[in-house]
Amino acid sequence: MNSQRADNEGRQFAGPVGPTRWGGFKSPDFSRVDVSSTMVILPIGSTEQHGPHLPVEVDSLLVSEVAHRAAALAPALVLPTLWVSLAEHHMAYAGSLTLDFETLLAFVRCVVRSLKRQGFRRILLLNGHGGNMAALTLVVDKLSAEFELPLATATYWNVAAKDFAAILEGQPNLLHACEAETSMVMFLRPDLVDAQAACTVASAPTGFLQEGGIHRWRDMSHWSRSGVVGTPRLASAMKGERLLEAAASALADQFARGAIWGDEMVKPSPV
Ligand SMILES: [Zn+2]
Questions:
Q1: What structural domains and CATH numbers belong to the chain?
Q2: What's the predicted TM-score (pTM) here?
Q3: What is the pLDDT of residues 51-105, one digit of tens each?
Q4: 61 C-alpha to center of ligand 1: Å?
Q5: Rounded to an integer, what distance in angstroms lies between the CA atom of residue 105 and that of residue 91?
Q6: Distance (Å) from CA 176 to ligand 1 centroid
Protein backbone atom coordinates (compact mmCIF):
# COMPACT_ATOMS: atom_id res chain seq x y z
CA MET A 1 0.00 0.00 0.00
CA ASN A 2 1.19 3.48 -0.75
CA SER A 3 2.63 5.02 2.39
CA GLN A 4 2.06 8.55 1.13
CA ARG A 5 -1.23 10.26 1.60
CA ALA A 6 -2.50 13.70 0.79
CA ASP A 7 -4.81 15.83 2.87
CA ASN A 8 -7.56 17.78 1.16
CA GLU A 9 -5.18 20.64 0.49
CA GLY A 10 -2.99 18.27 -1.46
CA ARG A 11 0.00 18.27 0.88
CA GLN A 12 1.79 14.96 1.19
CA PHE A 13 2.61 13.31 4.49
CA ALA A 14 4.73 10.19 4.79
CA GLY A 15 3.16 7.65 7.11
CA PRO A 16 1.65 4.24 7.48
CA VAL A 17 -1.90 5.30 8.35
CA GLY A 18 -4.98 6.20 6.33
CA PRO A 19 -6.87 9.48 6.13
CA THR A 20 -6.80 11.40 9.38
CA ARG A 21 -8.56 14.65 8.52
CA TRP A 22 -11.96 14.62 10.26
CA GLY A 23 -13.36 17.30 7.97
CA GLY A 24 -12.65 15.20 4.90
CA PHE A 25 -14.72 12.22 6.08
CA LYS A 26 -18.21 11.61 4.77
CA SER A 27 -20.71 10.68 7.44
CA PRO A 28 -20.86 6.94 6.51
CA ASP A 29 -17.03 6.79 6.73
CA PHE A 30 -17.26 7.11 10.51
CA SER A 31 -18.93 3.68 10.72
CA ARG A 32 -15.51 2.19 9.91
CA VAL A 33 -13.83 4.02 12.80
CA ASP A 34 -13.22 2.16 16.07
CA VAL A 35 -14.51 4.97 18.21
CA SER A 36 -13.48 3.48 21.56
CA SER A 37 -9.79 3.31 20.69
CA THR A 38 -9.34 6.08 18.12
CA MET A 39 -7.74 9.26 19.37
CA VAL A 40 -9.31 12.53 18.29
CA ILE A 41 -7.10 15.61 18.25
CA LEU A 42 -8.55 19.11 18.53
CA PRO A 43 -5.77 21.49 17.40
CA ILE A 44 -6.08 24.83 19.20
CA GLY A 45 -4.57 27.77 17.38
CA SER A 46 -4.98 31.49 17.74
CA THR A 47 -5.21 34.70 15.76
CA GLU A 48 -2.85 37.24 17.27
CA GLN A 49 0.04 39.52 16.40
CA HIS A 50 3.37 37.90 15.59
CA GLY A 51 5.55 40.98 15.24
CA PRO A 52 6.21 42.84 11.98
CA HIS A 53 7.49 39.81 10.07
CA LEU A 54 4.91 37.03 10.60
CA PRO A 55 1.15 36.87 9.99
CA VAL A 56 -1.46 36.68 12.73
CA GLU A 57 -2.43 33.13 11.75
CA VAL A 58 0.93 31.59 12.74
CA ASP A 59 -0.27 29.55 15.72
CA SER A 60 -3.21 28.07 13.80
CA LEU A 61 -1.02 27.25 10.81
CA LEU A 62 1.68 25.56 12.90
CA VAL A 63 -0.53 23.56 15.26
CA SER A 64 -2.55 22.24 12.29
CA GLU A 65 0.64 21.11 10.59
CA VAL A 66 2.01 19.45 13.73
CA ALA A 67 -1.32 17.68 14.38
CA HIS A 68 -1.52 16.25 10.86
CA ARG A 69 2.13 15.22 10.83
CA ALA A 70 1.74 13.46 14.20
CA ALA A 71 -1.47 11.74 13.05
CA ALA A 72 0.36 10.52 9.94
CA LEU A 73 2.85 8.73 12.20
CA ALA A 74 0.44 7.35 14.82
CA PRO A 75 -3.25 6.89 14.02
CA ALA A 76 -5.55 9.72 15.09
CA LEU A 77 -8.35 11.80 13.65
CA VAL A 78 -7.66 15.53 13.47
CA LEU A 79 -10.56 17.93 13.90
CA PRO A 80 -10.61 21.34 12.18
CA THR A 81 -8.38 23.78 14.05
CA LEU A 82 -9.85 26.28 16.48
CA TRP A 83 -8.49 29.55 15.11
CA VAL A 84 -9.16 31.88 18.06
CA SER A 85 -8.40 31.37 21.75
CA LEU A 86 -6.98 33.30 24.72
CA ALA A 87 -4.91 36.24 23.48
CA GLU A 88 -5.92 39.03 25.84
CA HIS A 89 -2.24 39.80 26.45
CA HIS A 90 -1.81 40.60 22.73
CA MET A 91 -4.85 42.84 22.35
CA ALA A 92 -2.78 46.06 22.38
CA TYR A 93 -1.48 45.03 18.94
CA ALA A 94 -3.59 45.33 15.80
CA GLY A 95 -4.99 42.14 14.30
CA SER A 96 -5.26 40.22 17.57
CA LEU A 97 -8.53 38.53 18.54
CA THR A 98 -9.41 36.80 21.78
CA LEU A 99 -12.01 34.62 23.45
CA ASP A 100 -12.68 34.86 27.17
CA PHE A 101 -12.01 31.79 29.29
CA GLU A 102 -15.69 30.95 29.73
CA THR A 103 -16.21 30.85 25.96
CA LEU A 104 -13.18 28.63 25.41
CA LEU A 105 -14.39 26.26 28.12
CA ALA A 106 -17.91 26.25 26.65
CA PHE A 107 -16.59 25.56 23.14
CA VAL A 108 -14.42 22.64 24.26
CA ARG A 109 -17.25 21.29 26.42
CA CYS A 110 -19.59 21.19 23.39
CA VAL A 111 -16.97 19.47 21.21
CA VAL A 112 -16.22 16.87 23.92
CA ARG A 113 -19.92 16.27 24.53
CA SER A 114 -20.50 15.72 20.79
CA LEU A 115 -17.57 13.30 20.57
CA LYS A 116 -18.71 11.38 23.64
CA ARG A 117 -22.21 11.00 22.19
CA GLN A 118 -20.62 9.24 19.21
CA GLY A 119 -18.59 6.95 21.46
CA PHE A 120 -15.15 8.56 21.25
CA ARG A 121 -13.17 8.30 24.48
CA ARG A 122 -9.65 9.49 23.65
CA ILE A 123 -9.62 13.22 23.14
CA LEU A 124 -6.49 15.36 23.04
CA LEU A 125 -6.49 19.15 23.02
CA LEU A 126 -3.31 19.95 21.09
CA ASN A 127 -2.26 23.45 21.95
CA GLY A 128 -0.30 25.79 19.70
CA HIS A 129 -0.54 29.06 21.67
CA GLY A 130 1.32 29.93 24.86
CA GLY A 131 -1.57 31.96 26.29
CA ASN A 132 -3.71 28.79 26.54
CA MET A 133 -1.43 26.55 28.57
CA ALA A 134 -2.73 27.25 32.07
CA ALA A 135 -6.33 27.47 30.84
CA LEU A 136 -6.29 24.17 28.96
CA THR A 137 -4.95 22.34 32.00
CA LEU A 138 -7.93 23.66 33.91
CA VAL A 139 -10.34 22.84 31.06
CA VAL A 140 -9.07 19.25 30.89
CA ASP A 141 -9.27 18.77 34.66
CA LYS A 142 -12.77 20.18 34.83
CA LEU A 143 -14.25 18.41 31.79
CA SER A 144 -12.61 15.05 32.59
CA ALA A 145 -14.55 14.98 35.84
CA GLU A 146 -17.71 16.29 34.19
CA PHE A 147 -17.74 13.72 31.35
CA GLU A 148 -15.90 10.89 33.15
CA LEU A 149 -13.41 10.73 30.30
CA PRO A 150 -9.63 10.92 30.54
CA LEU A 151 -9.13 14.07 28.46
CA ALA A 152 -5.58 15.20 27.74
CA THR A 153 -3.84 18.37 26.62
CA ALA A 154 -0.34 18.99 25.28
CA THR A 155 1.51 22.04 24.05
CA TYR A 156 3.59 20.69 21.18
CA TRP A 157 6.85 22.49 21.93
CA ASN A 158 6.82 21.22 25.50
CA VAL A 159 6.41 17.61 24.36
CA ALA A 160 9.41 18.12 22.04
CA ALA A 161 11.37 20.35 24.44
CA LYS A 162 14.62 18.36 24.30
CA ASP A 163 14.69 18.27 20.51
CA PHE A 164 13.76 21.93 20.22
CA ALA A 165 16.62 22.85 22.60
CA ALA A 166 19.06 20.91 20.42
CA ILE A 167 17.88 22.56 17.16
CA LEU A 168 17.55 26.16 18.34
CA GLU A 169 20.64 28.34 18.79
CA GLY A 170 19.43 31.52 20.43
CA GLN A 171 16.68 30.33 22.78
CA PRO A 172 15.91 27.17 24.76
CA ASN A 173 12.43 26.57 23.33
CA LEU A 174 9.63 28.25 21.37
CA LEU A 175 8.88 31.81 22.53
CA HIS A 176 6.89 34.22 20.38
CA ALA A 177 7.37 35.18 16.72
CA CYS A 178 10.85 33.92 17.52
CA GLU A 179 13.62 31.77 16.04
CA ALA A 180 11.35 28.70 16.25
CA GLU A 181 8.06 30.09 14.91
CA THR A 182 9.81 32.09 12.17
CA SER A 183 11.77 29.00 11.09
CA MET A 184 8.67 26.81 10.83
CA VAL A 185 6.74 29.41 8.81
CA MET A 186 9.81 29.93 6.58
CA PHE A 187 9.69 26.21 5.80
CA LEU A 188 5.93 25.90 5.38
CA ARG A 189 4.93 29.21 3.87
CA PRO A 190 7.94 31.38 2.99
CA ASP A 191 5.57 33.67 1.13
CA LEU A 192 4.12 34.73 4.49
CA VAL A 193 7.44 35.84 6.04
CA ASP A 194 8.92 39.32 5.75
CA ALA A 195 12.56 38.16 5.87
CA GLN A 196 13.94 41.71 6.05
CA ALA A 197 11.84 42.55 9.10
CA ALA A 198 12.76 39.21 10.70
CA CYS A 199 16.44 40.20 10.59
CA THR A 200 16.03 43.71 11.95
CA VAL A 201 13.24 43.48 14.52
CA ALA A 202 14.27 44.17 18.12
CA SER A 203 13.77 41.16 20.40
CA ALA A 204 12.69 41.50 23.99
CA PRO A 205 14.27 39.85 27.03
CA THR A 206 12.76 36.53 28.10
CA GLY A 207 11.79 35.10 31.48
CA PHE A 208 9.77 38.15 32.43
CA LEU A 209 6.50 36.55 33.48
CA GLN A 210 7.77 34.03 36.00
CA GLU A 211 10.41 35.56 38.23
CA GLY A 212 11.30 34.04 41.53
CA GLY A 213 8.35 31.65 41.35
CA ILE A 214 5.81 34.48 41.28
CA HIS A 215 3.33 34.83 38.45
CA ARG A 216 1.51 38.02 37.63
CA TRP A 217 -0.40 39.06 34.55
CA ARG A 218 1.15 41.53 32.17
CA ASP A 219 0.13 42.69 28.76
CA MET A 220 2.71 41.79 26.11
CA SER A 221 3.33 45.47 25.34
CA HIS A 222 4.82 45.88 28.84
CA TRP A 223 7.90 44.04 27.76
CA SER A 224 8.05 43.86 23.98
CA ARG A 225 7.59 46.93 21.81
CA SER A 226 7.79 44.87 18.62
CA GLY A 227 5.56 42.05 19.89
CA VAL A 228 8.46 39.61 19.45
CA VAL A 229 10.12 37.56 22.19
CA GLY A 230 13.16 35.59 21.04
CA THR A 231 15.58 35.91 18.12
CA PRO A 232 13.90 35.66 14.70
CA ARG A 233 17.10 36.67 12.88
CA LEU A 234 18.47 33.18 13.66
CA ALA A 235 15.57 31.50 11.84
CA SER A 236 15.96 29.26 8.79
CA ALA A 237 13.68 27.04 6.76
CA MET A 238 15.94 24.07 7.45
CA LYS A 239 15.53 24.52 11.21
CA GLY A 240 11.80 24.88 10.65
CA GLU A 241 11.57 21.52 8.92
CA ARG A 242 13.53 19.86 11.73
CA LEU A 243 11.34 21.48 14.39
CA LEU A 244 8.14 20.29 12.72
CA GLU A 245 9.51 16.78 12.34
CA ALA A 246 10.67 16.76 15.97
CA ALA A 247 7.29 17.97 17.25
CA ALA A 248 5.39 15.38 15.23
CA SER A 249 7.59 12.46 16.20
CA ALA A 250 7.70 13.42 19.90
CA LEU A 251 3.90 13.49 19.91
CA ALA A 252 3.61 10.28 17.91
CA ASP A 253 5.97 8.57 20.39
CA GLN A 254 3.65 9.55 23.21
CA PHE A 255 0.59 8.37 21.27
CA ALA A 256 2.22 5.05 20.43
CA ARG A 257 3.14 4.45 24.06
CA GLY A 258 -0.54 4.86 24.90
CA ALA A 259 0.22 5.63 28.52
CA ILE A 260 -1.76 8.85 28.36
CA TRP A 261 -4.95 6.81 28.07
CA GLY A 262 -4.02 4.20 30.69
CA ASP A 263 -6.80 3.36 33.09
CA GLU A 264 -4.68 2.05 35.93
CA MET A 265 -5.86 3.51 39.20
CA VAL A 266 -4.58 3.22 42.68
CA LYS A 267 -7.63 2.56 44.80
CA PRO A 268 -7.70 4.85 47.79
CA SER A 269 -7.59 2.80 50.95
CA PRO A 270 -7.58 4.55 54.28
CA VAL A 271 -5.04 2.96 56.61
ZN1 LIG B 1 0.39 32.58 20.08
A1: 4-259 (3.40.50.10310)
A2: 0.90
A3: 999 999 999 999 999 999 999 998 899 999 999 999 999 999 999 999 999 999 9
A4: 11
A5: 20
A6: 7
